[in-house]
Amino acid sequence: MRTKLFSLIALGVLLALSVPAFAHHGSAAYDMSKTVTVTGTVTDFQFVNPHVLIAMDVKDPATGKIEHWQGELTSPNHLARAGWTKSTIKPGDELTITGGPAKSGSPTMWIRKVSKDGQEVSLGGGGDN
Amino acid sequence: MMRKRLAWAVFVLAGVFVASSPAMTQQNTPAKQAPQGNQPAANPPRRGPAPPVEGPPHDPHDLTGVWNARRGYGGDTYPGPGPELTAWGEEQFKKAKASNGGEYTLEQTNDPVITKCYPPGVPRIYLQPFPMQIVQTPKEVILLFEYDHTVREVFTDGRKHPDADALTPTYMGNSIGHWDGDTFVVDTVGFNDKTWLDRSGRPHSDQLHVIERFHRMNERDLELDITMEDPKALAKPWQVHFGFQLHPDWTLQEQVCADNGAFVNFEK
Question: Is A89 within the bounds of a domain?
């Protein structure tokens, strides 16, 4: 009993300390030779340095299961020159994002293309700045 | 909540190293003055991809404006062959754990610009994927970099570098400049040894000497030939080329390295 309790506590500590699933780091984290596209509802949009972030809930049409995706964009400075503001994307927006997926298999990507209401939103020249 | 914030933080930082290749799509506005037109230099130094020389006339002695790396320049290092390093240089290079164009993650990199927000140094500053603004005054040319408010002052009032004994080692060095025909030549010494020559970890020592030759080829294109000399780190001078494009409708924005650390403490 005591062992079982200890194991549970240990498991809890491990979970608390574990690095989040999308905590990959650096370009080595993304497989830019692959492309993944998902469509979902924006839950968060961070127009911040050094890179802009989008979080989305993506519903699997077959199972109805919701998967939480995170997408990373170029710098806000670069996007501002392409016409973006902190209000370009809002929670509740329906988006389709395409990019290089995380090598870890976690639901994250380096975004290369954003479409809102069926219209592509320009990331500026190159989009990698 | 805390964990969510940390998650965002780590995620944000993860992207810092994704390879960047500045891209330019802007076109120029009409030229200002054309005292000398689009004449190439009598003895043009080694150049990268040849830019178009057609277009409105320009003043080759006017470098003012906001310039961004032309397509093909940027990323982890300069186009062309890498440097020939000394044994000491090789030893330092092996210790470098680059993330931009390298295989190291944010948690593993020891890039001093990323982990400590050090000023990038010269010429690495040109590889940071943000534009620069050149301001010319009667006594100095000022290079303002969008990346982390980095500034270089290039004195053109005829002064010399301070004597070695009086030269305080700095990240961006001590720069003096003069015009050699239509080429603006910048000589920089007085560096510390805390930064890299590029984003892949090529090292330098406090003996680094950088000679830059800026040449405005036409209204839109600014060419930069860079020679790096460092007897401690480089077996022979490393000559590279960089190209910029004018963006008349751009202004510099704010970019703050400390924002990276605001999410998670990644001091190493």
Answer: yes
